[in-house]
Amino acid sequence: MNYKKLLNEYLDNQTDKTPVVVALLAGLAVGAALGVLFAPASGTETRTLIADKSKDLSDSAKDKLQSYKEKMQASADHLAETAKDKYQTYSEKIQTGADDLSDLKDIAVETIKSRFSKAKDDVADAKDDLSDAKDEIVNA
Question: In the chain, what are the domain boundaries?
């Protein structure tokens, strides 16, 4: 069985590379610890070296975690700001649309009032014309 091919296919399918990074760091830590254990130094020196290396690795991990936290916070802040800007833009567009509709309503109402008034005047004129025609017929 081709383990290298299977491993590559598995890693290609994974979008999150965190397990690979963790495994790499763990391997480095184990390798460093084994290297120190087999080094030609006294037990006290070896324990001191192991403690120092452990502290360095711990500090490095803390620094990376803090860096990722800061990146995530910056991304969250950017996303929030973008959402706020989009909300503001759409809110302004909606308000402009509402104002335009209100203006169109006012124009329509004024047009209807004007046409109604003109029709009323036309009816009054027609009534006067009929009254005049009636008077002419009666007087004739």
Answer: 17-139
